[in-house]
Write a structure and sequence with these properties.
Layout lengths: L1 H19 L3 H12 L2 H22 L9 H18 L5 H17 L11 H18 L3 H5 L9 H23 L5 H4 L4 H20 L4 H29 L2
Length: 245
């Protein structure tokens, strides 16, 4: 029954991400972390989000902004190398707290920074920040959005380009945390095709909806959704950390 719930959560959150290009991964990581040990949650989330974002890449492939990808990929490789050296696995309280605070951290940044992911140095910094967030918290949507808010990309270009960069991070996270789990014991193999199909189906449904939105609606809805999720997860993280003392 737990794995049925996880599959349904994957479908719903992929639909959300397919429409807003945000929030879905945060919600899904919270659900997985609630039911599974941290490494298992990271691996299953990595699989679900790799296929979710991967299918979004295909659906919006003609809108990908390639100039962002090279510096971002270099930064992603740097982060993976650091994590391989330190071998760190966060606990659940830290995961929920980090996911919950990302939206508020994004709001706290001064507008004068003018972070624009279309600039190569900014894209490199974006790769460092976002991939680190993915490795520590599993999801990094609000951290990624900081670098897109001042860009001139359309909603289709945002969906496509973010999907590529997010897929990079989720694959790296999946590979890293796979070393910390006993696959058959912690994650039965039948759950993987179930979440993969759910992730792809959710994005297909999301594409039908996103065509009906304007760019302003796209950004406004996503902002409110992320703030609501942030408040919930901060509370959960505080409770988890308090219980561990």
């Amino acid at each position: 029954m737990i794995y049925v719930l996880l599959t349904l959560a994957t479908l719903v959150t992929s639909l959300i991400s397919g429409v807003l290009s945000m929030a879905g991964g945060m919600i899904l990581m919270g659900v997985f972390s609630f039911f599974l040990p941290v490494p298992a949650a990271m691996v299953l989330h990595g699989v679900a989000q790799s296929f979710s974002n991967g299918s979004r890449i295909w659906l919006h492939r003609q809108h990908i902004r390639v100039g962002v990808l090279v510096p971002y990929a270099i930064a992603t490789a740097v982060v993976l190398a650091v994590f391989m050296l330190v071998s760190f696995v966060p606990d659940k309280g830290l995961i929920f707290l980090l996911i919950g605070t990302f939206p508020f951290a994004a709001l706290a940044l001064p507008r004068s920074l003018h972070l624009d992911v279309e600039k190569k140095p900014v894209a490199f910094v974006c790769g460092l920040v976002v991939t680190t967030a993915q490795m520590l918290a599993g999801a990094s949507g609000p951290a990624l959005d900081i670098f897109y808010v001042n860009s001139r990309l359309t909603r289709h270009e945002v969906l496509a380009t973010k999907a590529v960069t997010q897929t990079m991070g989720h694959i790296i996270k999946l590979v890293y945390y796979a070393f910390y789990i006993k696959l058959a014991a912690e994650l039965p193999l039948h759950v993987f095709p179930a979440v993969i199909v759910a992730a792809i189906a959710g994005n297909w449904l999301g594409k039908l909806i996103v065509e009906r939105l304007h760019d302003d609606q796209f950004r406004k809805i996503g902002r409110y959704a992320i703030m609501a999720i942030g408040v919930t997860y901060v509370g959960k993280g505080v409770l988890e950390l308090a219980a561990s003392f």
